[in-house]
Each structure stands twice: as structure tokens, then as C-alpha cells.
User: Fold this.
Amino acid sequence: MLDEPRADEILVRLIASGVGWADLEAIDGGLPVPFPFVGGGEGAGIVEGVGDSVTGIAAGDTVILTPAFCGVCARCREGSPTHCLEHDALNRCGTRADGSVPFFGDGVPIHGFFQGQSSFATHALCRSTSVVKVPAEAPLEVLACLGGELCAAASIVIHAAVKRLEAIVVSGASGPGLVAVMTARALGFETIILVDPDQARRELATELGATFTVHADTDLPAVVMSVTPGGVDLSVETTGDRASLDACVASLAPGGICALLRSPGFIQPSDDALAAESRQISEMSRGCGSPHETIETLVAWHAAGKFPLEKLVVFYPFEHINDALQTLAVDAVPKPIVRFSLGLFGDLDRAGAEGAAVDEPADEPVDETTPENVDAVKV
Assistant:
């Protein structure tokens, strides 16, 4: 059972939800989320109701959901709501400020508001800051994945482009890495270098805009210096691998920035290279700037044919959400999305016709030790 929306809340019927790293971390206990809770931090759907104090959003609006922010703290006021000082209270506690929860199951209170939404359900209650209105014709089933780490990856590159940076290294061809490549291409970066051990992923990265691809075992800094003397302005590390991080830092030009989307812990270099060359390492798992502005930009690019998310996506019926989580955990697909039977179109043919991969999951979860299972769901 789900509460009715309160004054500052919005009720959204979910069409689809991306499956993201935050979901895996919360399930594994890596995030301070109280159990039991409803996960899901990348939803998209149709507004069914709004509270009395909500403005700018009405029933029937088409929306993409993001983590919540307060809108009034110093970080929000300066245009960086991804670093909202109330982030954990709004996205991790699972309750409203008065301690009440949005969900009940058999009379048992269940925590919600995960990543501002809890989109692993047919309906979600959200605060108004979690809702981004998009055009009615926007393909929500594909765009649902934009509310989490893909938005963060894109925002990092968009923020860098403001500084007129022209060269980038991206480590890891998972969903966020490929989105970083796509964003760099859309923004006109001259040099886009993608690092990944998988040949098929490297080929996909080339199709999406990478100007050079490199196997993960290659001497990345040497390749980078041969392609762009002096190094790149920005490197984006998406794998959480220590050796990859070292290579990304060593590939930077003086004054360059290595953005960590998935860090194994903040790693200080073993020498003074960072200080000597004015290089920086920055933890950016939440991204930069305003997620609303980033999503609006990406939706517009997608509509214009400049941001082919379909090439990253594999759809799962919501009943097979565990399969979707497992394929993300073993990096078998760039971006899994679960779809609800109440969606605008319930059959799987529509997505296939639009170019997205469609997976018919087995009843058993994917076994990461079974290559044929993994190959069957690779993009």
C-alpha cells in the first residue's frame, strides 16, 4: 500500500526504471539505507497526482525522476544541487521529516524515497525536486535510465566542456563510460579515448563516438601522450579499479582532472606527480551541477538523434528484476531497464523495432561463470 501524496509530494505511475549501481550498493549494505526498503533510483512515468503546494507539475505530465535535493541550502543556491547538504536525509533515510514512511506491506512499514523515488514499484511518491518534466512524446522506456549514474557521467563531461576542454579519456565501457563518450561526441571533443578489455564494447564505443579505443592491458599513458602530446584535460574513471585510476591520472595534462564515478576509495598517488603537475582527483559519483538541466539536455539530444541510448539498453519485465540486477552486477550489459506491464506499450516488440536490445530472461539468474549466458545478453 502507498500513501496519498502530501502537500509537497507527487505521485507517479512508473513506466520503467533503470537498474543502477546505487541499487546494488544498497542491497549489499554499502549504503546506509534502512531495511526493509523499496529500491530503484532511475524511474520514469506519468504523474497521477500532486500535493497542494506543488507547482509546475500536473497530473498527466510525462516525467523522469532523479535524486532529491532541498533547493535552499548553500550548494543548491549556487547551482550544485547534486551536492545538496541534505542529500542523505532526502535520499537515504527512507522516511519523511516526521518519520513516516510511504509504503506499507501487510501492515509493516516499508522505507521509500530511495534516491528520491523508490522506482522499483508500480507507483512512486516523490518530492518536487525529484521530478523533471519532459515532452509527452519522449520515449520513457528508454530515457528512464537517465536519473542515476548515466546523468552523473554526462554532467561531468558537460561541466568540463564549459572550460573548453578538448581531450578526454574514459576508463570502462559500462553504461556510464559509454554515456561519457556519447556526451563528449555531442559536445565536439576532438579526442575521445575509451579504455576497456572487451573488444565488442570497444567497437560499440567507436560507433558511439570514441576516436581511439585501448585495451585495458595497454600502457594507457603512453598511448595518450602519442595521440595528444602533453596528455588529456579530463579522465573519467568508471571501473573502481586501482590500476585503472593510476593510468587515468598519469594520462592527464598539467592542470587536468580525473573524475571518479566509482572509486575504490580515495587514493593518494605514491609520489608527488599530482601536486607537481597541478593535476586533480575528484570524487564525482553524484555528477556536477543540476541533474534537471543535464536530463533536459540529454532528452533534447536524444530527440535530435545525437544521443542513441537504445544502443546501451536491455529491457527486462519487472517480474525478472533479479535478472536485471545480476546482469548489472557482472557487467553483462551496459544498462538494464525494467519495464512495468502498465506501461504505455506493453509488448517487447516496440523496443526492438526502435533499436534497443530486448532480453527474455530465464527463470534462473545469470551465472557470471557461464560465458554463454553473459554473451546472450551483451549489446
Notes: The chain has two domains: 9-147+312-374, 154-283. The chain has a mean pLDDT of 88. The CA atoms of residues 38 and 275 lie 44 Å apart. The longest helix spans residues 149-162.
